[in-house]
Amino acid sequence: MINIMKDIYIQDKRLWQVWPGKNRFCCSGKCMTGPKSDLLYYIPSIAALIVIPNTFFIFAAPYIWQKVTVILPILSVILYLLTLSAYILTTFTDPGIIPRKTITEIIDHESSKIDIMSIDMSKYCSTCQIFRPRRSHHCKVCDNCVEIFDHHCPYINNCIGGRNYIFFFLFILNLTLLCLTNIAGCFIFIFHDYSISGPAKETFIKQGTVSLIIIVIIIVLTTMIGILTTILCLHHICLCFTGETTKERIKGEDIGSHCYFCKKKPKKFDPQQILTEEQFKKIVEGPVFIEMSDNENSVSN
Ligand SMILES: [Zn+2]
Ligand SMILES: [Zn+2]
């Protein structure tokens, strides 16, 4: 019985398997992310996010916990977990992709239909062959139109749009606070030890020269990241008040009466949607695949 069910599942053809954009899907279409071309930026970012805070936890946090206060290491761990969770959610959440005309025509799914009232007739996307809703833009990297498009972030490996903006904002906010906490922790680690006189200081210097060098490196790297994220965080806090996206702010576009946060859009397609043999064939053989020469990247296991 289990084998029969397994065979039926394997035979199902899903929308994510024939997706015409450059986005990649994982976990059988449950999660989606940006194209492979971002990995050059994404891998160093995730490595820095894992290595730098964990080096702080290994070298500085135990000393602060034992000799100064338990509050700072606990706060740092909480902020780190929040930062990492927000980062993963931003990377693997659909930013608000609008399916191309070919997809909506073949599938005819209720959720994929664009609200006529929101369409801007002066904004036609020749790749997706649709009149785009207001505030949406075509991301050249992902090769899809995205609703309430903010920007494409290669360090996150995804577009930042109406559906994942809140996770992105929480990521930069928590990362900024994490940087400030860890820099404070590093300075406490250095100066608290040097304030101790007598044998304790000698013990620290003997055992801790390597630790001290590592902590100085952490301070330099965390300060560099902290300055960038603080600027980014302040920029997005300003945008929260004006209701604009980064693209609208740069281009000076009028956003009308639409509010950035109040209008969270529902998902416009289901990557796990089961396709009929005919629908699968139409999408594979249809004009979308003929127009896009390098779409092999869009299908990933
Ligand atoms: Zn488009
Ligand atoms: Zn993108």
Automatic annotation (TrEMBL):
Instruction: Please tell me which top-level EC class this enzyme sits in.
Output: transferase
According to its UniProt record, the EC number is 2.3.1.225
Q: Transmembrane helix among the record's keywords?
A: yes
Gene Ontology BP, a term? protein targeting to membrane
Q: What membrane topology term does the record carry?
A: Multi-pass membrane protein
Determine the domain of life of the protein's source: Eukaryota
Q: Give the Palmitoyltransferase DHHC domain ranges.
A: 121-251
Q: Name one GO molecular function term.
A: protein-cysteine S-palmitoyltransferase activity
Catalysed reaction(s) here are: L-cysteinyl-[protein] + hexadecanoyl-CoA = S-hexadecanoyl-L-cysteinyl-[protein] + CoA
In the UniProt record, does the keyword Lipoprotein occur?
Answer: yes
Q: What Gene Ontology terms describe where this protein resides (cellular component)?
A: endoplasmic reticulum; Golgi apparatus
Q: Which family does the similarity line name?
A: Belongs to the DHHC palmitoyltransferase family.
Written domain comment of the UniProt record = The DHHC domain is required for palmitoyltransferase activity.
Full protein name: Palmitoyltransferase
Species in which this protein is naturally found: Stentor coeruleus
